[in-house]
Amino acid sequence: MSVRQEREAGFSLIELMVVIGIMAIVMAIAGGAYSSWRESTRVDSAKEKIVSILQQARLAALSRRTAQTVTFNYAGAGANPNTVTDVLGQLHRFQGVTLLDFVCGGCNLGANNTENIIFTPRGTATQLTVQVSSPTANKVFFIQANSTTSRVAIRRTCVAPNCI
What we know:
By secondary structure, this protein is α+β, with helices and mostly antiparallel strands.
């Protein structure tokens, strides 16, 4: 085997550096997309989990024939911000997501730091609207519990007098 054939069998340092540079660029682009997707998924997951907690409380109130309470600790509220305590007393944390008290009649934030929603055995509930959002994902949802029917709904926007 000649000396020339041995040199052509591998990669040169320049070729290796170019490949590493291209891989770094691709990884930087993919990392940004992944981060955005992850934040978006956190908001969607929190929204679905909160709806599930509220629906379970409603069903528990109707089936057990006793009032069931779910507690919301909003952003900046005490030791457990952005958490929900379900009817079994379990604390659900929502990291990377902001929970806020919301008033749909005026389409503005409420003043509550903590709030209870009580589902009664008769099928009614206290009125509740929670804003679920993420500043980095630019996603906002409004979760509403109707005081008359106690049904839980997810809304995308607020147009006075209701979230729609």
